[in-house]
Amino acid sequence: MELLCIQSQEHPELPLAELKAVMECENIDAEIEKVCEGLVILKDISPDNLDSYYETLTRRLGYTHEVHEMIVRSDVDNLDSDVSGIDWSEYIDESFAVRVKRFHSQIDTVGTERNVGTLILDNCDDIKVNLTKPKSLVRVVAFENNFYVAIERIKLNKKHFEDSKPHKRPFFYPGSMNPKLARCMVNLSRIREGQLLLDPFCGTGGILIEAGLIGCKVVGSDVYWKMKNGTAINLDYYGITDYRTFNVDVRELKMYEKVASVVTDPPYGISTSTGDVDGEEIFNEFFRSIYDNMKDDAYLCMASPHYVDLNPMVEDVGFEIVEQYRIKMHKSLTRIISVIRKKLK
Ligand SMILES: C[S@@+](CC[C@H](N)C(=O)[O-])C[C@H]1O[C@@H](n2cnc3c(N)ncnc32)[C@H](O)[C@@H]1O
Q1: 90 phi and psi, to 5 degrees?
Q2: What is the pLDDT of residue 157?
Q3: Rounded CA separation 265/185 (Å)
């Protein structure tokens, strides 16, 4: 069986990297077919695993907008007969809508929606079209001359990423990253539900909110008590209960329990203070202090500005960089997202 994933195209690599990281840590056994940027098919899924994989992906992913169960792969010449050959009563409950999305295709979207809708109605009793609130959504994706016909079983909560933007939280302070990127970084750290995740520069708690929402236990610390308290206010607001926050300088950090992952956005630039640590030295101090607080197989996912070379600092402490992604923020700043782990001894 197959799952069809429609991904964000706001970054050329991060959406797929996030998907791969989630598949790895959740043991999702499927082959990945990247059709084009924004369109990925997970193939060879055993029917026994399909529902749990579907639930996990929709619960976790930030840069994937939709996940659908593939019904049939078709093409321009065979679409009508393929759609007519499906037993739609297996997929549609009372009412439905067909929505078409194009990737590198010039097909007539509205015409295809009408055509597929009519074919479904002709081949299935007791269902009707409802374009505003359909119970079942048939997603047709057109890519070049191919059509992928799929059904949406679980809706991804895209509204959450709007509702959790930094200025919509009860405690706001400039410098918190966009929640989708925060979710992606949490996923890149390969954390699983129930495991402990730490952000030692927690600020307003943006990263911890995303980790808490996918079921992690979270710990946040910040050198300023105002930020530590603000994080707690924000975590409460989003209904996250399994958390602890501390007011501590990263250089003094000593966790009561080694963590399964660290996800963080250390201070840099003008909008965040580094306490009394000088400029780039905060990164050195951070690596030295965090190493012993992490389990041996833990991952660290962090953001940094392009002008800070993490390589020598990471080497020095015994870490290695395993993945890196560049996000251009503006003319003079590119943000680097690094996935780091302890070197094997
Ligand atoms: C870029 S902000 C983090 C933003 C955060 N991800 C959020 O969602 O709001 C960096 C944070 O590091 C904190 N910080 C600065 N120096 C620190 C230090 N030496 N130890 C711990 N926290 C520090 C700042 O107070 C600030 O809240």
Answers
A1: -70, -25
A2: 87
A3: 10
**CA-wise closest residue to 67 among 95, 48, 87, 45:** 45
Tens of pLDDT along 88-109?
A: 999 999 999 999 999 999 999 9
Pocket test for ligand 1, best of 222, 268, 276, 301 (most atoms within 8 A of CB): 222
Smallest CA separation from ligand 1 atom 27, residue: 203
- Domain 162-342 part of CATH 3.40.50.150: yes
- Report the C-alpha gap between 67 and 41 in whole angstroms: 9
CATH architecture of 3-152: 2-Layer Sandwich (3.30)
Encode pLDDT of 217-241 as tens digits.
Answer: 999 999 999 999 999 999 999 999 9
Distances (CA, A) of 85 to 117, 122, 136: 14, 11, 18
Q: Where are the domains of the chain?
A: 3-152, 162-342
Ligand 1, atom 12: closest residue by C-alpha: 201
Q: How far is the CA of 221 from the centre of ligand 1 (A)?
A: 8
